[in-house]
Amino acid sequence: MKTLVCTLPGQFEYKEIPAPTVEKDHALIKIKRIGICGTDLHAYEGTQPFFNYPRILGHELSGELVDFDNAPGFSKGESVSVIPYFSCGTCIACRRGKPNCCTDIKVFGVHIDGG
């Protein structure tokens, strides 16, 4: 699969990587649209805090649901958008219903590769 990777501040490279497979409690989405926001621009500039290179950018995205594990209420082929925040589910903030304050939060396209 062809990806566009921000390898260093100010530098992009196209790279071939293996196509992803469905993991437990995850979904595969065929990307149709990606927005570019300030976070992406700061990553490209090298001014995004807590950012590591290389990274596949993109956390504002939508597409078609291709496959999934444990996604009640969804159907294959459905148009979907992504909530790009992944919380641990076990820290004190998560246990108190505040996953946005997770002590180990991962943001798609920032802490982990995006779309």
Automatic annotation (TrEMBL):
It holds the Pfam family ADH_N. Keywords: Oxidoreductase. It comes from the Bacteria. The keyword Oxidoreductase applies. InterPro entries: ADH-like_N (IPR013154), GroES-like_sf (IPR011032), Zn_alcohol_dh (IPR050129). Residues 24-114 form the Alcohol dehydrogenase-like N-terminal domain. It comes from Niabella ginsengisoli. This is Alcohol dehydrogenase catalytic domain-containing protein. Gene3D superfamilies: Medium-chain alcohol dehydrogenases, catalytic domain. The keyword Oxidoreductase applies. The lineage of its organism: Bacteria, Pseudomonadati, Bacteroidota, Chitinophagia, Chitinophagales. Signal peptide: none annotated.
